[in-house]
Amino acid sequence: MLKHFYSYHVEIDSLVLEIESLEIEDHEKKNLISLAESHVHHAVIDSILSSLKKEEKQEFLKLLNSKNQEKIWKFLRDKIKDVEEKIEKTASEVKNQLLKDITETKA
Amino acid sequence: MAQRDKHIYKELRDKWIKKHKDLQEAFWAKHGDIIHDFINNTRNFAVGSVSGLMILSSPAVGLLSPTSSLAVKEEKLPMERKVFLIGDLSNVLPQEVRELTEDEEKKVAEILIRDFGLKVSATLDGKRLNRSYGYIGAEQHLARYRGDTMATHFIPPAGGSDNFVKHYSSGMAPGLGAWGYFANSQNEMTEQDLLREKYYIAVQTFLAPGFYENVREYITFFKFRKMLVVNPHNGRAVVAIIGDAGPAEWTGKHLGGSPEVMKYLERVDGAQKGPVLYFFIDDPQDQVPLGPIDIK
């Protein structure tokens, strides 16, 4: 499982479990989980970057590169109102859409 | 039993790849400029540069297994492809510059094969170097034939005035390369000889596992062996040959690059030295041209 600075706030276990429950090969499950994680990640980072000013975006990328989660959160809380809720909401929307895809495909 | 939902996998896979592609395109349209600026500004960052930018990795990075039936084939802009290469490598490479594990080498090779279309590996014909990821230092020009000097080194068409300006200051190594001269004389020098000196690297052949047990066999193997050398921080890559042995262990460097190799990779010696990846190219028919190579 990929670990990101927002992992604590984003729960995708239910999505992973749903994929794991499919009767497909292990490498296929891994592929789908990888795609799902990447979906969530792109959406979360997009949401953050879209909420920052140009110079703040550079600073955020710099912090992201440093992997210093404490500094990342300090920066984000300072620049984006209710950033945790924002990230949770974004991730949740993506996760629900992907869960819906699984349900529809299984039907 | 595992095959029961096979159709579900294929449908989901195709649906999610399509969605992911759309997501990526929208993402890059919105934030591509700022990320490109960041990458350019972090080019000389310490080891592990951009390693935290998981955003740059393509979904294909974990799907590279030859056994995987999932092939993410997306047309990307050249810069974007390079950014993916940088991001994907940063996900595999360790923060510190150390010897890669077998698993890491395998993953790196998969990424390089995917992006450069060459058959590369850390081990070839059962032989390998002491490492495949290390600090590169600057080497000097090598004498290509008896009597070759800095004065003759850049005489057109062999070098050209542009190369003279760029690379004259590197100077000529006082001794010969590990394999001696590249050609018997100036008149006999071929285009291949010229390119071999131009794009050469020095590697620590003497530290290769098994080297001293079978010196002659190993020297024969290493002589002018083609390698793909990649700067993982900017995605620049060169096809070079092993033209010399070195550097000594005490230097703290693990390989050396000709002036042309260093220039293209945008690597420098000294305190600002940085790491590169160097993998063997399996090219028995000698079809891979030497010099800079772009992502396919």
Can you give a write-up of this model?
- The complex is a heterodimer of chains A (107) and B (296).
- With 107 residues, chain A is an all-alpha fold.
- Chain A has one domain (13-106).
- Chain A is 76% helix and 0% strand.
- Chain A is elongated, with a radius of gyration of 15 Å.
- Chain B has 296 residues and is an alpha+beta fold.
- Chain B has 2 domains: 6-96, no CATH class; 120-293, Barwin-like endoglucanases, CATH 2.40.40.
- In chain B, the strands form 2 sheets. In chain B, strands 4-8-5-7-6-9 form a 6-stranded mixed β-barrel.
- In chain B, α2 (78-92) packs antiparallel against α3 (102-116).
- The longest helix of chain B is centred in the first third of the chain and has 36 residues, at 6-41.
- Chain B is globular and about 65 Å long.
- Chain B starts with 5 loop residues before the first helix and ends with a strand.
- The model of chain B is unreliable at 43-52, 54-77 and 157-161 (pLDDT under 50).
- The chains are: A mainly alpha (107), B alpha+beta (296).
- The A-B interface holds A 2, 4, 22-28, 30-32, 34-36, 38-39, 41-43, 45-46, 49-50, 54, 57-58, 61-62, 64-67, 98, 101-102, 105-106 and B 1-6, 8-9, 11-13, 15-17, 19-20, 23-24, 26-27, 30-31, 34-35, 37-38, 41-42, 45, 49-55, 57, 59, 61-63, 65, 67-70.
